[in-house]
Amino acid sequence: MKKLIFIILALSLLIVGCTKETPQPPVEDTPKAADYFPFMENTKLSYKGEGNEYAEKDVFFDFIEGDRAQLRVMNPGTTLAQIYEVKDGEVRRLSSKEEMYAFYNTLDWLKDANQGTEAEVLLKEPIEKGNKWQLSDGRTREITAVDMAVETPHADYKAIEVTTTSQDGKSTTKDYYAKEIGLIKTEFSSEGFEVLTILEKVEKDTALNTKVNFYYPDFHNEKIVFVEEEIPFKTNDDIKQLLADKLKQSPGEGINAVLGKNVKINEILYKPDDSSVTVDFSEELVTEMNAGIFLEGQILTSIANTFGSYFNVNDVFIRKAGKTYESGHVYLEEDEPLNPRIEEAAPYNK
Questions:
Q1: What is the DSSP letter of 21?
Q2: By three-state DSSP, how is residue 148 classified?
Q3: Where among 185, 203, 221 does a domain terminate?
Q4: Residue 63 zone, left/alpha/beta (φ > 0; ψ -120 to 50; rest)
């Protein structure tokens, strides 16, 4: 009986051992569109250009929210705010707005059906040679190569090649995307004319510095002065907080701060098409002001100048806790803007 039990145990162990040693089929690593367009916080990508003065560019991730990101694209001609979405096996460009120099989150604009343009699909699964799709303007886009060796000044990559052909077939654009980095190279060709944009440098864990003019009352000399400050901006930074913090600080002796220490900026509503910006402050804007009518006027002018110059608009609307601005001295109608008077301000010299 003991011998029979021993034999049964031995056979059981043998079966278990054989089961453990049975080779498993390899798991296929199916490439995803998202692999080739990662959202990277606090990352600046620099591209050199050839064949056109606007071919070079710098790209920075201003805002990232879930499956969408707003990229700042800076070339010698303009700065664009472009919104991308990685969803349902596609990489899509949802909108592109020129002359967007201020750090401002435009992702909410797309919640309005009237904002943005029709999505352009940059990448589409399956990530394999021959995958082709049509764009709304008649162009054709196709994955024409995978695992292609691409050399750039930054590094050598294995990339996918995506070729876009114009409706008339006279021009082509080849975009090259690498895993974990995104776009590394673009080649445009049209009837002998060629333009090249190629990745040159990647800076991680960095901020993008931007120069801002802050305006303050010089009460005793009855004028407005300004100070140019360089503000480091990181991905998803709150521009409301950055601007408020600076306006709470006096740049020097005899110069008034614009905001009291407890003032908050509740909301900034930027409308570039209307050349306007609305700034909604907390109640402390008035309760902590402690100013007569002349100084209050200087403070309001300093606010209009700071936000008007930063957003490059003609009209600045000031709100207090969501309502029209009013104090003991000043009342502004709902549709009454303050116009920046930047030309009257003088640089502050300590």
A1: H
A2: strand
A3: 203
A4: beta
Q: Tell me, yes or no, whether 76 lies in a domain.
A: yes
Grade residue 29 by pLDDT with cuts at 50, 70 and 90.
Answer: confident
Q: Is the dihedral of CA 69, 74, 75, 78 positive or negative?
A: positive
DSSP codes joined into one string, 138-170: S-EEEEEEEEEEEE-SS-EEEEEEEEEE-TTSS
- Give CA–CA dist 38/22, Å, rounded: 37
**Tokens read off for 226:** 């300004």
Strands across the sheet with 276-281, in order? 265-271, 276-281, 315-320, 323-324
Query: pLDDT tens digit string along 208-220?
Result: 999 999 999 999 9
Cα–Cα distance between 244 and 165 in angstroms, integer?
48
Residue 230 forms part of a structural domain? yes
Six-digit token pair at 15? 């079966």
Which of 203, 229, 263 is where one domain is finished? Answer: 203
Distance CA 268, CA 238 (A): 11
Q: What is the pLDDT of residues 258-285, one digit of tens each?
A: 999 999 999 999 999 999 999 999 999 9
Q: For the segment 128-175, what is each residue's pLDDT rounded down to a tens digit?
A: 999 999 999 999 999 999 999 999 999 999 999 999 999 999 999 999
The pLDDT value recorded for residue 11 is: 41
Predicted TM-score of the model (pTM) = 0.87
Helix axes 293-311, 239-247, angle to 10 degrees: 140
Rounded CA-CA distance 303/336 in Å is 15
- State the residue range of the domain holding 93: 33-203
Sign (positive or negative) of CA dihedral 231, 61, 140, 53: positive
Strand partners, 72: 60, 81
The mean pLDDT value for 191-214 works out to 96
Where are any strands of DSSP class E within 259-340? 265-271, 276-281, 315-320, 323-324
Average model confidence (pLDDT) across the chain: 91
